[in-house]
Specification:
heterodimer, A: 313 residues, alpha/beta, Rossmann fold, Alpha-Beta Plaits, 2 domains, 6-stranded mixed beta sheet, 11 helices, 34% helix, B: mainly alpha, D-Maltodextrin-Binding Protein, domain 2, 4-stranded mixed beta sheet, elongated, binds adenosine-5'-triphosphate, binds magnesium ion
């Protein structure tokens, strides 16, 4: 797990051997997680890798096939209902009522969480201001833009100030500008002590997390902080420049010691296995002396090295 | 707990009021059904198209024909020269029955023991004519059968010997024997069954289909709160429908409403709750709205056919009566007819009322238990 082994760490989520099968199909396979309180933790992975299923298992929405989950210090099994006031969940698909207005939705969710009278009104005003929804209070939720819907959903999920917040691909319908804004809100929540688990398939978002898990086909392929993941990567990044890069890419990809080669602008970004001692020499031999330099690994490189057919331990 | 129930209640009410189509149906279903059943459905058959095979061609045979027309039960729309032709016409469906008057009809009439005092003891009694009936429709057949003993004393110029019937019949509550008087209160039961079950059977499923459930079950809302909040708005809808049917039935079809307002209200509320919880139970079983609708129809058909709405409960075989007893609508059918037409009080109908109450409580418990706060 993470390199931090200090005894005092309190975990918001602890999962051991968490699995979920749908018939023959294994959606989540022996997932182990330890997410410290007050951090933002990311699930990074392609479509269908089991991000939503994992979140549903951790919120108690789905019954796990195997494994144990501890949420906020309590075993999930048997404490689902009492934990519900302490966790918030923003679903991947918009799950508020399209034919209710923004305010009506907030009113409804507020009442469901037991807010009433002045306290409810004050909290709703606060959220409307915080998530910039004041002009939309009378608009039907169904008629709002993707970004507005997502802000409303976040407002509803955080209405009761949960200690643990699950966000399932919260920014999939949001432009980069609003995504920045959205992440500012997440860091505000985090600073106030909320633990956040967020799933995404955007590298830049994953990079903002304190720690993340890279998932593929229900398996956790790697986890740790973005920095640690990049440092401990099992490949070296070499950037090759020159001409006829398309043909070169073909020859390089076929080589067993090369994990991947991808064209990025005028360069070819090549991931060479760590066991190759002098990657620059190795590449220049393969590429007929084209110019090549060592590059800093990115999270995308980490992702490529730990997923796909060429995945190596 | 009540904050949450109230929140769900308000939410449902708002969603319902914004769904124009559904809102329209709440009003239109009772109105259209009332028109259809009130005007079109009549179990006392009249003006049945029949044919005549008159081989006698006498003044008496024409008098018999006129006497029959005067009953309004039959209309002679065609004449045939032989029984064979009449049979073909019945097979083709042109006429539903034919009257055969033999060539010696006049003699038979005057020799008939009913009209001939001298021949009272004669063993030789010949009918004066014969009806051939398309017996496949039992209502038509029994209407024609009722003509069997039609008195023909005027035709025979004699007073019939047997004038005093064995029994005197006094018809309470519906002296003119209009079908609509019995139909309208029954219609309250059928329409409530239909709309109440239909609305709630989709209630939980819809939240699933629109993805709202995934959020809702991560909130602290309890199954029971969700169930009660979901059905509460439809109690108002049901009462509105009862009011529409009874008042329109009263004004348009002069159906008397004898019972007290309180008994009517109490009985209706009991039945509305029972139907709504039945719908909720279905809603926890169905996976899609289509399935919910199919299940509603599955309940609706026996509700219409076995509840006593179409056919008298007492005439059904015992097994069918058991099934009928299990359906809330049978109990309400008895109650609403008793209250509306016979001014029975709710207390007088304690057994039915109690059953509806128990059904509701059982239904709510089953629905809450079945509804797991889980996905999939
Ligand atoms: N209810 C279900 N029944 C059967 N299979 C399911 C069910 N839910 C999910 N799966 C399967 O489990 C796997 C993981 O699905 P999941 O929704 O967790 O993926 P995801 O990582 O959230 O993908 P996406 O990025 O598209 O949201 C998929 O192969 C999916 O088909
Ligand atoms: Mg997903």
């Amino acid at each position: 797990m993470t390199s931090n082994n200090s005894e005092q760490i309190e975990y918001a989520i602890e999962a051991k051997g968490l699995s979920k099968r749908f018939g023959e199909n294994i959606a989540v396979n022996k997932l182990d997680l330890k997410i410290p309180k007050g951090s933002i933790y990311g699930f990074l992975g392609p479509n269908g890798c089991g991000k939503s299923t994992s979140i549903r298992l951790l919120t108690g929405l789905l019954e796990a096939s195997e494994g144990d989950v501890t949420i906020l210090g309590k075993p999930l099994q048997g404490h689902e209902e009492s934990l519900k006031t302490r966790i918030g969940y923003m679903t991947q698909k918009f799950s508020l009522y399209d034919n209710l207005t923004v305010r009506e939705n907030l009113d409804f969710v507020g009442a469901i969480y037991g807010f009433a009278g002045k306290r409810k009104k004050a909290r709703i005003e606060e959220l409307l201001a915080l998530y910039d929804l004041e002009k939309q209070t009378k608009q039907f939720a169904g008629s709002m833009s993707g970004g507005q819907k997502q802000r409303l959903a976040l407002a509803c999920a955080t209405l009761h100030s949960p200690e643990l917040l699950f966000l399932d691909e919260p920014t999939s319908a949001v432009d980069p500008e609003n995504r920045r804004e959205f992440w500012e809100r997440l860091f505000d929540l985090c600073a106030a002590g909320t633990t956040i688990l967020v799933s995404t398939h955007y590298m830049d978002e994953a990079e903002r997390c304190h720690a993340l898990a890279i998932m593929e086909e229900g398996n956790k392929r790697a986890d740790g902080s973005p920095q640690a993941l990049m440092e401990s990567m099992s490949a070296t990044v070499v950037e090759v420049s020159g001409n006829k890069l398309r043909q070169l890419k073909q020859t390089l990809t076929d080589h067993p010691d090369i994990l991947s080669a991808a064209q990025i602008g005028a360069h070819l970004r090549v991931l060479v296995k760590k066991k190759v001692h002098d990657p620059l020499l190795f590449i220049s031999e393969l590429s007929n002396g084209r110019e090549s330099i060592l590059a800093r690994p990115s999270l995308e490189d980490v992702f490529v090295t730990c997923t796909g057919e060429r995945y190596v331990d | 707990m009540w904050i949450r129930v109230y929140a769900i209640f308000i939410k449902e009410l708002k969603q319902l009021s914004r769904d124009r189509m559904t809102f329209g149906m709440i009003i239109m279903i009772p109105l259209v059904q009332l028109m259809l059943f009130g005007y079109a459905i009549n179990t006392d058959a009249r003006h049945i198209p029949v044919g005549l095979v008159d081989l006698s061609q006498t003044a008496e045979s024409r008098a018999v024909e006129q006497a029959l027309v005067a009953t309004q039960s039959v209309d002679f729309i065609a004449r045939y020269r032989s029984i064979k032709e009449a049979e073909v016409a019945i097979t083709q469906g042109e006429i539903r029955a034919a009257l055969y008057l033999p060539s010696d009809m006049t003699r038979r009439l005057f020799n008939h023991p009913l009209y001939d005092h001298k021949q009272l003891d004669s063993a030789l009694t010949l009918p004066i004519g014969q009806w051939i009936v398309d017996g496949s429709d039992t209502v038509i057949a029994s209407t024609i059968r009722a003509l069997r003993n039609m008195p023909l004393d005027e035709v025979a110029n004699h007073t019939a010997t047997r004038t005093a019937p064995s029994f005197e019949v006094v018809q309470y509550f519906n002296p003119e024997q209009r079908t609509v008087v019995n139909i309208v209160p029954g219609l309250v039961a059928v329409i409530l069954t239909m709309t109440m079950i239909l609305f709630t059977s989709a209630a939980i499923v819809r939240e699933h289909e629109h993805g709202n459930m995934e959020f809702l079950i991560t909130t602290p809302v309890r199954s029971m709160e969700l169930m009660i909040g979901k059905i509460a708005p439809y109690v108002l809808v049901g009462l509105l429908q009862v009011a529409i049917i009874l008042s329109v039935g009263h004004w348009m079809f002069s159906v008397p409403i004898q019972g007290s307002f309180l008994s009517l209200l109490g009985g209706s509320i009991l039945f509305i709750f029972a139907s709504l919880t039945l719908g909720l139970v279905l809603s926890t079983i169905a996976k899609t709205q289509l399935q919910a609708t199919q299940m509603t129809i599955f309940i609706l058909l026996p509700s219409i056919l076995l509840s006593g709405f179409m056919f008298p409960y007492d005439a059904m075989p015992v097994a069918a009566q058991w099934i009928a007893e299990a359906l809330p609508v049978t109990h309400f059918m008895r109650m609403i007819r008793a209250i509306a037409l016979r001014d029975a009080s709710l207390l007088l109908l304690g057994k039915d009322a109690l059953w509806l109450g128990l059904f509701t409580i059982g239904g709510i418990i089953i629905a809450s238990l079945r509804f797991k706060k889980k996905l999939g």
